[in-house]
Amino acid sequence: MGLKLLFVGNDWDVLDEMQRLTRTRRGEWDMTFACGGLDANRHLAITDRLPDVIVCQDVLPATDGFDFLQSMADKANDPLCLVLASTEPVELVSASIPWVHACLRAPLDPEALAEEIDRLASDRGAAKSAAIRDLTESIEFLPRLPTTYQQVAEITNRRDFSLREISEVIQLDVGLTAETLRMVNSAFFGLRGEIESVEQAVNLLGLDMVRGLVLANSLFDEAETGCIVELPVLSHHSQNVASVARVVAEIDGGGKSDQAVSFLAGMLHLVGVLLMPPPESGPLGATFLRNEDLAADVERFSVDRYAIGTYLLRMWEFEQNIVETVAALAQPEFADGSVARSVLTAVRLLQLEGFPVAKFVEGDEDVRAKVATLRSQWEHQQAA
Questions:
Q1: Strand 53-57 to 29-35 pairing
Q2: DSSP H stretches of helix in 12-128
Q3: How far apart, in whole angstroms, are the C-alpha atoms of residue 328 and residue 40?
Q4: In sequence order, which residues have a C-beta less than 8 Å from that of residue 297 and are 6 or more positions away?
Q5: Cis before 98 (ω within 30)
C-alpha cells in the first residue's frame, strides 16, 4: 500500500497547482487535497485511513493552519508534517515547532518532497518528534537562530552574493566583530600574520568557517530558554569540540571545505541541549556535556540530546551532512563520511578529563601522537 498524503492549501488555485505538479506520482501516492484546516478536518472525519504525510501551505491563517497541525500531532499515527514555505521560514519554524517535521521551499517540487519523506523515515529527530513535542510544552521560549546568522543565511541563499556583503553584516555587530577577530588571530586557526578586518577573515577562512564563528559567538548567548546546563559552559564546550574537529579533519587530509564543515558541525552538535530544561536544583556543569549519558537523557526526557539536535537542525534548514553528523553521534557505528568521523573523534577526546585542547590544536607533537594511538584503539574496538 502506497503512502497516503494530505495536501492543505490556502485556496483552490494553490491546490490545483499542487495537483498538477504531483500528477506523475498518482501511481505511488494516495493523495487528498483540502482547502484550509477546516476542510482538511472534514476529510479526516470521513476517511478510514489517516494520512502518513501532510503537506501544508505556510500562509494558512494561524488559527486555522497551526491549530490543524497541532490537532494532527495528537493523532495515533503521528503523521509527518511538512510546510511549504514561500518565504524565509525562520518565524514559521519558531511558531510551528514541534508540530512540523521539515520545511520545503515553494513552489512544490515532487522530487524534493519524495527525497524529504525518505530522509524523514530514517531520521531519529523525526522518529522522536512526539517526545520532543512533550518536552517543549514545559519551555516558555523556543530557541531561534541568532539574528546575524539569519541575515548571513539570507544572503547566501542568493546565487549572486559576495563575501563582502557577509562581512558588512558581521561588522554591524561590534561585539561579534571583536570576538571573530580575536578567534581568527588565535593559535586555533594557525593563520600567518595579523588579521585586521572581518572582510580579510571571511576571505581567508571561507563561508562555512565564518558561519561557525558567527554561531560560536552568538548562538548560545542569544538563547532565551532555561537550559539544563549553563550557557557559557555549553558555548565553551561546543567551541572546543568544533576546534578539535577542524584539526582532526586537517590531520585526516581533508581540504578547507571539510575542515570548515567539521568546525560548523562541531559547534552545532549539542544544539539539542537548548531544549532540555534544567532540574529543580539548577543548571548542570561541563560534566553533563562530557559524560554524554544518552540513556539518562531518555530516562529523563524520553529522547536524547542528539535526536533533539537533528530535529532542530532540520527545521533550521541546515545541510543534510550536518544533520546526519549529529544524528550519527548517538550511533557511532553508523558514522559515515569525513565530517561525521571528525566530530565523533572530537567528542570522544573531550570526554577525556583534562584533554589539552589548546596543545592539540596548536600542533603539540606528543599530544597528537597520543590522539593517533587512541583513534587506532577505538577503531580496533569498533571492528571487533
A1: unpaired
A2: 12-21, 36-46, 62-73, 90-96, 110-121, 124-127
A3: 36
A4: 276, 303, 304, 305
A5: yes
**Would you list the domain boundaries of the chain?**
3-121, 147-383
Cβ of 336: how many Cβ atoms within 10 Å? 12
User: Which range has the top average pLDDT, 170-174, 245-249, 314-318?
Assistant: 245-249
Q: Where are the alpha helices (DSSP H) in 157-251?
A: 163-171, 174-184, 198-205, 207-218, 231-251
Q: For the chain, what is the largest distance between any 2 Cα atoms, rounded to a whole number of angstroms?
A: 70
Lowest mean pLDDT among 40-54, 66-80, 95-109: 66-80
Task: Give dist(CA 356, CA 361) in Å, integer.
Answer: 9
The class that CATH gives domain 3-121 is: alpha beta
pLDDT at 63: 46
Contact 94, 103 (CB under 8 A): no
CB 310 within 8 A of CB 124: yes
pTM of the shown model: 0.76
Per-residue pLDDT tens over the stretch 64-84: 555 676 666 655 566 778 877
Concatenated DSSP letters of 264-302: HHHHHTTGGGGGSPPPTT--B-HHHHHH--HHHHHHHHS
CATH class of the 147-383 domain in this structure? mainly alpha
pLDDT at 3 over 60: yes
- pLDDT bucket at 371, cuts 50 / 70 / 90: very high
Given a contact cutoff of 8 angstroms between Cβ atoms, the answer to whether 82 and 100 are in contact is yes
pLDDT band at 2 (very low <50, low <70, confident <90, very high): confident
CA distances 40 to 53, 55, 66, 177, Å, are: 13, 11, 12, 49
What is the C-alpha R_g of the chain? 22
Q: Are 72 and 60 in contact (CB under 8 A)?
A: no
Q: Which amino acid is at 327?
A: A
Highest mean pLDDT among 122-131, 280-289, 329-338, 343-352: 343-352
Produce one character per residue of 288-306: b if its CB has 16 or more CB atoms within 10 Å, e if not.
bbeebebeebeeebebbbb
β-sheet bridge partners, residue 229: 284
Angle at 345 between CA 340 and CA 346, to 5 degrees: 100
Give the number of residues written for the chain: 384
